[in-house]
Amino acid sequence: MKMSELKPQKIIHLDLDGVIFNMTKRVKELLGKTLDEFSSRQEAWDKLNKYQDIFQNLELMPDAEALVDGVTKFARENGYKVEVLTAIPLMTKMPYAALHKEESVKRHFGHLGWKFKIGPHAKDKQNHCKPGDILIDDSDQNIDQWNAAGGIGILHTSAKDTLKELSKISKK
Q1: Which pLDDT score is estimated for 153?
Q2: Residue 89, CB half-sphere, CA atoms under 13 Å: how many?
Q3: Backbone phi and psi for residue 150, each to the nearest 5 degrees, phi listed first
Q4: How remote is the C-alpha of 152 from its chain's centroid?
Q5: pLDDT, position 41
Q6: Helix (H) or strand (E) holding 82
Q7: Which segments of the chain does DSSP mark as H helices, in order?
Q8: Closest Cα partner for 17 from 89, 108, 96, 109?
Q9: Which residues contact 145 (CB under 8 A, 6 or more apart)?
Q10: CA-CA distance, 127 to 121, in Å (whole number)?
């Protein structure tokens, strides 16, 4: 078989903030409330701008390891590869955000050898979509855009629910 005849491998794209890392908890520690509790996202990011290391030491979500184990198993059994697809803040200047996110992924999951990709912003994630690719993300908007681009979007609310949705895909 020639290389040109090989089907490209499908990808499961994992978001970080709100899926793997607990960004909500970190923002609340720093500002006393979550992003959603501000009158605008711009107001929140204006305040967060002074915390240039915000992405450096985020805690894992309580069920992140169960999610990663389940996604890794699903990928292996169904011919997918897993990659990180995250975004950097659009409403502020945080030059180290991408580097800090990548370092955090390597610290916790470096042994898995995932490719690390930046959107660069959330609105750009859809540009990474190929038919059949999966995005696991906690943003309704990102999921809607991903689905419109021909992918399979799973809105992440918990590892248990996400893995349940993944199992439905393998049965299609």
Answers
A1: 98
A2: 24
A3: 100, 5
A4: 14
A5: 86
A6: strand 80-86
A7: 23-31, 41-48, 64-78, 97-109, 140-148, 159-170
A8: 89
A9: 123, 125, 126
A10: 11
Site of tokens 């915000």? 54
Taking only the tens place, the pLDDT of each residue in 52-62 is 999 988 999 99
Q: Which two tokens stand for residue 80?
A: 């997918």
Report how far residue 146's alpha carbon sits from residue 137's, in angstroms, rounded to the nearest whole number.
10
Helix (H) / strand (E) element for 86: namely strand 80-86
Q: How many CB atoms lie within 10 A of CB 60?
A: 15
Residue 16 contacts residue 86 (beta carbons within 8 Å):
yes
**Distance between CA atoms of 120 and 33, rounded to whole angstroms?**
26
57, two tokens: 């030491």
pLDDT tops 90 at residue 1 = no
Locate 15 and state its tokens. 């978001």
What is residue 6's predicted lDDT score, i.e. its pLDDT?
57
Write out the two tokens for 58: 């985020």
In single-letter form, the type of residue at position 107 comes to R
- pTM tops 0.85, yes or no: yes
Instruction: Report the C-alpha gap between 160 and 26 in whole angstroms.
Output: 23
Asked if 119 and 85 touch (Cβ cutoff 8 Å), the reply is yes
